[in-house]
Structures are given as C-alpha cells and as structure tokens.
Amino acid sequence: MGRRAPGVTADSEVLPGGAGHRPGGAVKRAQQLCIARRLSAVAATCVILTLAIQVLRMFEGYGMRAGVDGHWTDRGSFRQHQTGRLDLHALAMEHLAPVHAVYGDPATWIHLPQGRHTTAEATAEMIAKAESSWRDHGLGYWSLVLRAQLPGSPLRPGDVVGTGGVSAVEGDLWNLGYRLTPDAWGHGLAGEVVREALACARTVAPSRPVVARILSENSASRRVAERAGMILIREEIESSGPAAGQRRLTFSDRQLS
Length: 257
Known about the structure:
Strands 5-6-7-8-9-10-12-11 form an 8-stranded mixed sheet, sandwiched between helices. A two-stranded antiparallel sheet has the order 1-2. A two-stranded antiparallel ribbon has the order 3-4. The model is unreliable at 1-22 and 53-75 (pLDDT under 50). It starts with 11 loop residues before the first strand and ends in a 5-residue tail after the last strand. It contains 5 helices and 12 strands. It has helices spanning 25-58, 96-103, 120-137, 189-204, 219-227, and strands spanning 12-14, 21-23, 65-66, 72-73, 80-82, 86-90, 141-146, 160-169, 173-180, 210-215, 231-237, 247-252.
C-alpha cells in the first residue's frame, strides 16, 4: 500500500498545484448538512421573533396594571376608539369649546332646563372629573366626533356632537351617560355609544356594575337603555340637586345586591 502525502487522509483530495487539501465527498456532505440545519434554525428563530414583534405592536401602549380601586385597568386601549359612525376621544380640556357649545345649548336640556351649563367653568369642571376617571380607573367619558354623514342633518364629519361613555362614581360603580346636540338626535348614535361603553366597561372592570340614572319623562333615553339590555332596578323621587322633585329611574347592566 503506497504512502500518503503528509496531512492528506483517505477522505481528502489534493488541491491542484499542491496548494493543500480539501475534504472529500463524505465529509463535505456532512458539513453541508450541518450548515443547512443551522440555517433552518436561524430562519425559524427569525419567524418567531417577527411574530413576537407583531404581537407586541398590537398591544403597544395598552399597559395593563392594577388600578387604585383594585380592578385591572387597560390604560390605553379605549382612549382613542371608534363606533360605526363616531370617533371617540378621551374627554379632555382641549375639547372644552365644542363640548360647552353642546352643554350650554338649552335644546339639549329639555328634560332638565336647570341643569344647563351657563358658564364654561361648569363644563370645565365636568371635563376635569372625566379626566380623573380616565387617569385613576382606566375609563371615562369620550368626546364624540362624527365621522359619517347623517342623512338630513347639517352636521358634517369632524364635528363634535357631544359626549358619552361611562365614568367611575362612588359605590364602585360606572355611571353611564351621554349628551348629544339636537342635530344628532334620531340617528341611533346614542345606542352606538351606550353599547360601546358597556363593552369597554366589562373589559376594563367586569365586576363593576354599570348604572344609568334617567328622568322618568325621558322616554328616548329609557328606550336606549332597555335596548342595550339594561334593567330597571329602582325608581325614586330626587330630593336635592337640579332634578329635585322629579322621578328618577335607575337602570343597571345586572341585578344589584
């Protein structure tokens, strides 16, 4: 049996011109297989990382944490929201002028004329309470911005048409309410807001009941509450405040103990 050149094995072949040696067929195939496996592993890792990044982006800014009242609150998901025909923006002082135009309009207070906001300061106080609810409880009233034309209405997309949603109140409750400019009445916008508010409240704090307090003569608001699945739990005569002496109906999204 002939002698092999130093450093040359049975699975190696001499490079042309005596430049050295390279692996033979079996070793080369093994190396190629190893490289292919590594490339496959890298590709799989890239796919997993890409999917993870997409999921994180979906939830970016949502920041779940325990609220001051012990409920789990979603800090970002509902501050900017939509219904079929409305853009919903967490109510803030920047909305003061258009919101006061609604709250200062006597036509929006036909069932409670004495409740009308006669000064911008009264509207600012209401907005401050909404901001506090957003900050401390993860949900509050929205400013309602029209994004679809209403048939027969002079309102245009981009107009602020009122406020609505739920806000945290004493007794570990959400108070459901809305106020719309008269040109937005009769188009089902109140129902859109109420349904969305109920869904958001059940997401942010499912154990916290939602209540709506409605004057008995306000049959339109009563129908909106009933169509949203709320139930009448109490009737009483208001003893104080702007509605003193009037009958008030309390609706809830569940039976209360």
